[in-house]
Amino acid sequence: MPSKNAGNNGDNSEDNFEDFEIVNSDEISFVKRGRKSEIDPKYVSLVKALEKGQTIKLRFLQISVDRNDPKFNNEKARITSQIRSICRAAGLNKSEFEIKWDPSGFPQVVR
User: Fewer beta carbons under 10 A from the terminal one: N or C of the chain?
Assistant: First the structure.
């Protein structure tokens, strides 16, 4: 629950809110979240060359974490995100490809 003095910036009350500032929404600015990913053009061209019914195994993106490791799901999500970025750069829509994983941890793009 906010303090009764939440809007009184810099007053001498018992609550001190010097770390906060209330501003109008038209006065704020934003930065994009995260960093811009750098996609290697050779991977984009490989995925772009796939024809319907073909699959490419992306050995360079193998999951290096054991399935029982708590980091496994995060690593899989990170790699899946990279593959989606590669596919978007290749001009593929979500409905034009699937990401399948082989038992040894290699992601595969299926057209």
Answer: N
Q: Measure the CA–CA gap between 80 and 66, rounded to whole angstroms.
A: 17
Structure tokens at 59: 């050995």
Interior angle at CA 36, CA 111 and CA 97, nearest 5: 10
pTM over 0.85: no
Domain ranges of the chain: 41-110
- Please state the φ and ψ torsions of residue 26, each to the nearest 5 degrees: -80, 0
- Per-residue confidence band for 37, with pLDDT thresholds at 50, 70 and 90: low
